[in-house]
Amino acid sequence: MNNPALTFHTPLEKANAGWRRYAGIGLAFALNGVLVWALASGLAIKLTKYVPPVLETKVIDTPQAQPKPVAPPPTPQMVKIVPTEQTPEPFIQVAPDPNAQSIQVQPQPQQPVQQADSSASGMSSTHTTPPYPPMARRLSQQGTVILSITVAADGSVSAAQVATSSGFPELDQTALAWVKTHWRYKPAMQGGVAVPSSTQAAVKFDLKQAR
């Protein structure tokens, strides 16, 4: 009868058993190395990390309430107006009275508008002062001549004479000649007609205003 405790192993069997032991230890070290490398490179984190999905939002326009359609107003109906017949007014003809007398009114002739009577008035644009006589200026002669003037119906001076002398004959004659030649008047009116008239005028000779 054989005893297992007394079993003897041959040197070959011992060598195979030692190889298996060393192979198991190497495999364990290899697995540990792979695990350490995975942890160092973040592979475990990559495998376990969960990335939440991105939430997208979208604004949805709320539809506005459409106004209710308004019913159009009813179309007015045309009412035909029938004209009523008008009763003609009665025509009454009155026979003329044979005893009546017709009266004719004669039109009154229009009276011409008469202008008020007026006297002659001088036209200022023509009433200028005569040039100073050279001799009277050298002799320092000055004074005022008052003339009596006759104005014709056309406004011209038809006659003139000295009413009051200036004291110097040369000044008097110069004034007479100038007024008769240059002065004009609006003629006097009498009954709407221009008539001759008479008036007076003064001609002043002043050395301060001599020209």
Name of the CATH superfamily of the domain at 121-209: TonB
Summarize the amount of helix as a percent range. 25-40%
Q: What is the H/E string?
A: HHEHEEHEEEE
Q: What is the typical, i.e. mean, pLDDT?
A: 77
- How many β-strand runs? 7
**Separation of the first and last Cα atoms:** 193 Å
Strand order of the largest sheet: 3-2-7
Give the C-alpha Rg: 76 Å
The first-level CATH class of the domain at 121-209 is given as Alpha Beta
The CATH topology of the domain at 121-209: TolA/TonB C-terminal domain
Q: What is the count of DSSP helices, taking H or I runs of 4+ residues? A: 4
Structural class: alpha+beta
Beta-strand percent range = 15-25%
Please give a structural write-up.
By secondary structure, the chain is of the alpha+beta class. The protein has helices spanning 11-41, 43-48, 134-138, 169-182; strands at 121-122, 143-151, 157-164, 185-186, 188-190, 193-195, 197-205. Among the domains are: 11-48; 121-209, 2-Layer Sandwich (TolA/TonB C-terminal domain), CATH 3.30.2420.10. Helix content is 27%, strand content 17%. The strands form three sheets. It has a three-stranded antiparallel β-sheet, with helices on one face. Strand 2 (143-151) and strand 3 form a beta hairpin. The longest helix has 31 residues, at 11-41. The protein is elongated and about 195 Å long.
